[in-house]
Amino acid sequence: MPAPLLQIDRLIKRYNGATVVDELSLEIRPGECLGVIGPNGAGKTTTIRMCLGLVSPDAGAIEIFGLPVPQRVREAKKRLGVVTQFDSLDPDFTCAENLRVFASYFGVPRRQIEARIPKLLEFAALQARAASRPAELSGGMKRRLSLARALVNDPDLLLLDEPTTGLDPQARHLMWERLKALLQQGKSILLTTHFMDEAERLCDRLIVLDHGRKIAEGTPRGLISEHLESDVVEVYGDGAQAVAERLATLAGRVETSGDTVFFYVSEPRPLLEALTDDHSLRTLHRPSNLEDLFLKLTGRQIRDDA
Q: pTM for the whole thing?
């Protein structure tokens, strides 16, 4: 089995007495996409910042390409590509110039840079925007340019911190296509995301973080099978709570959020038959998904950013 490109061992980070990353361990192997999901303040971004040497851990170890971080982070970054939550494109440069200048930071020879720029712009679907500045681009275009910029050094490992946040569905799907293409090329990806459909589409494995701790790990479908009933029946309407009390015994688990009751069931037929004659309610029957997993493991309460 090939050695991990990224290995984190019992990582700890505290701020003002609060532990934001709590003995976290993970690894990424060549060609793998590892997703990290969790509520705001779970420690996702702090972990990436420690991997980039921007924050020093209080305990634990990080190795990237076998190099200890932060001690040898400059060497490790030569083979890394990074897309942060917020765009850091230079507003004074055109799209092509942003790529050209960023490549020069890695010491890429000028001839290689000039040969690489058209391919990167094509990859980002920005061929016609080579001379445009970031202020002239849509949000989706800026994110694609940020991804292209992260590829100027032909990295083996990409660290992507919520790369599709703020994008409309069309732009998000285009980003997914590009990320899938990178995985097919053999790149490895560490992806943090709040979009459960994104995690399920892209990730080979998932880690669920809460309060800085890893609370679950596995394949998307494996985690769903391990922690959830196979089906969900959602019931909407003013009488939903009364129905929840009357039919609770037909479900493995029942949750209420606002005027919606969620019945988690392994055998949905008896519940659906019991609901058939009640025309005052709306129902939706669907398979369990990653959002259900996320809410079960981390709760439905709103978290403030941290």
A: 0.91
Q: Which of 153, 166, 173 is nearest to 109 (CA)?
A: 153
Domain of 189: which CATH number? 3.40.50.300
Could you report the per-residue pLDDT of 107-138, keeping only the tens digit for each?
999 999 999 999 999 999 999 999 999 999 99
Q: What is the mean pLDDT of residues 145-169?
A: 94
Residue 282 sits in the same domain as residue 135? no
Task: Provide the CATH number for the domain around residue 234.
Answer: 3.30.70
Domain that holds residue 272: 229-287
Q: What is the pLDDT of residues 54-91, one digit of tens each?
A: 999 999 999 999 999 999 999 999 999 999 988 899 99
